[in-house]
C-alpha cells in the first residue's frame, strides 16, 4: 500500500512538472489579468469620464422641487380673540438654465482633456506591462543560465580537482597546482551562491506582475534565432517616439487641460447669465398665516450675476492655475528629453547586441578550441594547471557573454518598440516564437 502511494505521488509530480512550463504569452496573459497598475489606469479612465459628465451636467437645466406640509395653530388675543387650527401646504418647483457662464464651459473642456489624458496613460500602462513581462521573463531565463553555468563549471572543477589530488598523491603535480584548483573551485561556489540569489530576485520580480506562483520552468530560447539589427535612421525613430509614444501624448494633453484650467479660473471674473422658471403653490402666507384661498405664483426671469470682489480669491486661483500650467510644460519637456535618450539608447544598444551576438559566438568557438588545446597540453606537461584554469574561465565567460548578448538584444529591442510607442502583442508573439517548449 505504501509503495502504491509512493508511485502515485511520483506520477502526480511528473504531471505537475509537465504542466508548469510556460511561455511568454501565457505569463503575459496572467499579468494582464492581475497587474494592479494596469487596473488602476483603467479605473482612472472611468474617473475621467465621470468628471467630464459632471462638468457637462453643470451646463444642462437644473430642476429642483420641494414640498412642505405643516399643522398650524393661530391664536388672536383681545376682546374678540379666537383660535384657529389649520393645515398648511407649500409646493415649489424651479428650473435654472445657464445661458452664459464661461467658467462652466472651460471646466467642461478641461475635464474632457483630463479624460483623454487618462486614456493615453492607460495605453502607456498596457505598453509598460508588455515591456515589463518581456524584460522580467528573460531576466529569469538569464538568471537560470547563470546558475546552470555555475553548476556546470563547478562540476568540471570538482572533477578536475579529484584528478589533481590523485596526481598530487603520486607526486606528479606540485602542491601549488592543487591550491590553485581548490581556490578556483571556491570562487565558482561563491559565484553559484550569488547566481542563485539573483535568480530568486528575478523570479520575484516576475511574480510581482502575475500575482501567482511561478512555474518550475519557463520556455527557453531556441537555437538558430536570427537576431537582426533595427533598420532606419535614428533621428526618424526619435521623431516617431515624440509623436506616437502614449506617455508623451498624455503629457501634452495634460498641458491642454492645464491651459483650460487657466481659462476656467479667469472666467470667474466674468458675468454669469442664466434663465429661471419658478412655480410656487401655497395656502399659507407670511409667518404661516392662513390665506383665504390657495395662491399660485409663476415666475420667469433672467438673472445676471456680476462678480466684483472676492477678497482676491479668484485672482490667486488664476495664479495657481498658471503655475500648474508651467509645471505641466516643464514635465513635458523633461519627458521629451528622456524619451529621446531612451529611444537612442535602445536603438543603439539593440544593434550593438546584434553585432555582439555574432562576435560572441565566434569567441565561444575559439575559447572552446583553446581550452581543449590547454587540457591536452597539460596532459603532456607542456602547460601548467593555471593555464588550463585560465582557458576554462575564458570558455565559460564566452558562453556567458554569448547568452547575455541574446537576452540583452531581446530586452533592448522590446524597449525600443516601447519607446517609439509601437509595442504590441504581435511583438510578444514574435518573441514567443523564439522560445521552445521544455521537455520533461
From TrEMBL:
The keyword Isomerase does not apply. Residues 1-21 form the signal peptide. It is found in: Cell outer membrane. Pfam families: OEP. Gene3D superfamilies: Outer membrane efflux proteins (OEP). Residues 140-174 form a coiled coil. InterPro entries: OMP_efflux, T1SS_OMP_TolC, TolC-like. The keyword Cell membrane does not apply. Keywords: Cell outer membrane, Coiled coil, Membrane, Signal, Transmembrane, Transmembrane beta strand, Transport. PANTHER family: OUTER MEMBRANE PROTEIN TOLC (PTHR30026). Belongs to the outer membrane factor (OMF) (TC 1.B.17) family. This is TolC family outer membrane protein. The lineage of its organism: Bacteria, Pseudomonadati, Pseudomonadota, Gammaproteobacteria, Methylococcales.
Amino acid at each position: 500500500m505504501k509503495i502504491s502511494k509512493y508511485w502515485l505521488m511520483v506520477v502526480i509530480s511528473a504531471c505537475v512538472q509537465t504542466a508548469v512550463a510556460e511561455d511568454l504569452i501565457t505569463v503575459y496573459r496572467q499579468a494582464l489579468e492581475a497587474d494592479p497598475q494596469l487596473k488602476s489606469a483603467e479605473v482612472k479612465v472611468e474617473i475621467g469620464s465621470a468628471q467630464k459628465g459632471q462638468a457637462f451636467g453643470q451646463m444642462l437645466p437644473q430642476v429642483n422641487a420641494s414640498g412642505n406640509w405643516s399643522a398650524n395653530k393661530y391664536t388672536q388675543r383681545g376682546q374678540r380673540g379666537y383660535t384657529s387650527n389649520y393645515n398648511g401646504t407649500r409646493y415649489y418647483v424651479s428650473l435654472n438654465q445657464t445661458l452664459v457662464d464661461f467658467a462652466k464651459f472651460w471646466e467642461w473642456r478641461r475635464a474632457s482633456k483630463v479624460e483623454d489624458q487618462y486614456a493615453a496613460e492607460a495605453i502607456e500602462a498596457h505598453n509598460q506591462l508588455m515591456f515589463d513581462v518581456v524584460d522580467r521573463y528573460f531576466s529569469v531565463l538569464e538568471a537560470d543560465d547563470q546558475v546552470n553555468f555555475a553548476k556546470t563549471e563547478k562540476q568540471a572543477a570538482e572533477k578536475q580537482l579529484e584528478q589533481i589530488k590523485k596526481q598530487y598523491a603520486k607526486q606528479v603535480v606540485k602542491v601549488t597546482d592543487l591550491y590553485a584548483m581548490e581556490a578556483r573551485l571556491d570562487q565558482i561556489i561563491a559565484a553559484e551562491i550569488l547566481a542563485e540569489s539573483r535568480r530568486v530576485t528575478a523570479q520575484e520580480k516576475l511574480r510581482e506582475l502575475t500575482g501567482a506562483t511561478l512555474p518550475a520552468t519557463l520556455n527557453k530560447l531556441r537555437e538558430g534565432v536570427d537576431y537582426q539589427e533595427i533598420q532606419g535612421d535614428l533621428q526618424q525613430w526619435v521623431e516617431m517616439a515624440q509623436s506616437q509614444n502614449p506617455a508623451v501624448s498624455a503629457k501634452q494633453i495634460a498641458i491642454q487641460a492645464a491651459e483650460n484650467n487657466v481659462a476656467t479660473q479667469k472666467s470667474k471674473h466674468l458675468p454669469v447669465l442664466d434663465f429661471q422658471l419658478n412655480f410656487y403653490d401655497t395656502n399659507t402666507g407670511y409667518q404661516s398665516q392662513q390665506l383665504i384661498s390657495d395662491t399660485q405664483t409663476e415666475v420667469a426671469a433672467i438673472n445676471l450675476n456680476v462678480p466684483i470682489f472676492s477678497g482676491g480669491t479668484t485672482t490667486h486661483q488664476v495664479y495657481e492655475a498658471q503655475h500648474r500650467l508651467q509645471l505641466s510644460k516643464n514635465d513635458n519637456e523633461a519627458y521629451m528629453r528622456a524619451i529621446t535618450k531612451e529611444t537612442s539608447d535602445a536603438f543603439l544598444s539593440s544593434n550593438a547586441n546584434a553585432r555582439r551576438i555574432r562576435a560572441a559566438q565566434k569567441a565561444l568557438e575559439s575559447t572552446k578550441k583553446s581550452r581543449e588545446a590547454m587540457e591536452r597540453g597539460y596532459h603532456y606537461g607542456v602547460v601548467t594547471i593555471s593555464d588550463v584554469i585560465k582557458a576554462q574561465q575564458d570558455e565559460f565567460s564566452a558562453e556567458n557573454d554569448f547568452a547575455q548578448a541574446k537576452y540583452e538584444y531581446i530586452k533592448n529591442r522590446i524597449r525600443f518598440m516601447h519607446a517609439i510607442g509601437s509595442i504590441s502583442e504581435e511583438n510578444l508573439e514574435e518573441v514567443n516564437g523564439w522560445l521552445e517548449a521544455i521537455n520533461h
